[in-house]
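Progress note, sequence design subtask.
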């Protein structure tokens, strides 16, 4: 059984009892070298000792037995403080009855737009079951003909912050997996944006640059013939 503040408890036991390092390490769940380091002042030097008897994790009788017998291993009590500090299990997400019919639409949206999000994440976020997700994905849901992908935020099933957090977490997990496996990400949304280059540069690549323009380009082929006729008339 793990105890609260193991290092602080070890500091107190080292300073106030005659227990062996092995007994303290066993009771506090620490490595033997850590306890020796505490005794030498190399570990936990700034940590204030915590009395395990005062905080309800050890009885005086247990401590006396251990001090009389170096082979004895103390048994920790269940501390009322530990029970209070124990994280409570989060209750499943509750979805109002009026909104439950919208969940398949939200599931369809996830399947279509974010395939990187796992069924477990969708189930936790929407408060649905994995079997329902599979039915929607495989079009075997009883109402498949009427299911359409709709943003769960629009449906009021989740908040935008919750949705962004799940998408970001899934994308990061996918990126790490791809890096580990040496697989390039093919999702265009995750690729850097590419700048579209023009077909040709107006100043350099145009076939009609000003410096190369001829009379025919500007006035047409007939203008050259008229110019020749005028030159002949001038000659006479």
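Output:
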């Amino acid at each position: 059984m793990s105890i609260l503040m193991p290092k602080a408890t070890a500091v107190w036991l080292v300073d106030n009892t005659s227990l062996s390092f092995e007994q303290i390490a066993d009771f506090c769940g620490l490595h033997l070298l850590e306890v020796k380091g505490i005794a030498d002042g190399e570990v936990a030097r700034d940590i204030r000792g915590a009395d395990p008897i005062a905080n309800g994790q050890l009885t005086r009788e247990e401590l006396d037995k251990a001090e009389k017998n170096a082979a004895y291993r103390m048994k920790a009590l269940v501390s009322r403080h530990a029970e209070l500090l124990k994280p409570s299990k989060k209750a499943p997400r509750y979805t109002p009855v009026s909104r439950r019919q919208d969940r398949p639409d939200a599931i369809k949206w996830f399947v279509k737009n974010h395939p990187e999000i796992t069924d477990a994440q969708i189930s936790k976020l929407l408060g649905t079951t994995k079997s329902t997700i599979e039915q929607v994905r495989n079009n075997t849901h009883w109402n498949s003909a009427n299911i359409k992908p709709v943003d769960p935020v629009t449906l009021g099933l989740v908040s935008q912050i919750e949705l962004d957090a799940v998408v970001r977490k899934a994308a990061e997990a996918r990126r790490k997996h791809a890096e580990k496996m040496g697989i390039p990400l093919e999702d265009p949304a995750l690729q850097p944006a590419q700048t579209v280059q023009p077909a040709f540069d107006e100043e350099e690549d145009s076939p009609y640059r000003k410096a190369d323009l001829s009379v025919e380009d500007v006035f047409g082929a007939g203008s050259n013939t008229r110019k020749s006729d005028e030159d002949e008339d001038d000659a006479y």
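The radius of gyration is 39 Å. Work on this subtask will continue into the next period as scheduled.
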